[in-house]
Design a protein that fits this description.
single chain; mainly alpha; two-stranded antiparallel ribbon; 2 strands; about 70% helix
């Protein structure tokens, strides 16, 4: 039998905590991915036109490179 704590059963509280932990982890992963993309974009912005031409990429490719789905 579940214990009652302020009108909410112990099982419901545990389930809510688990969902909250999952949501927090998802948010943290999303923020980490945003930071990684921003770092990639900052590094790419340092290249001049000659470097980009040598790498056979253009500034239009930056978003795809940062997302990780760039194809030649």
């Amino acid at each position: 039998m579940a214990t009652t704590f302020h009108g909410v059963s112990g099982l419901a509280t545990t389930s809510l905590r688990a969902r909250l932990r999952t949501a927090i982890r998802s948010f943290q992963a999303w923020r980490a991915e945003r930071r990684r993309r921003a770092e990639v974009l900052r590094e790419l912005a340092k290249f001049d036109d000659r470097d980009l031409r040598d790498l056979a990429i253009s500034r239009y490719d930056f978003a795809a490179i940062a997302r990780g789905n760039f194809r030649r």
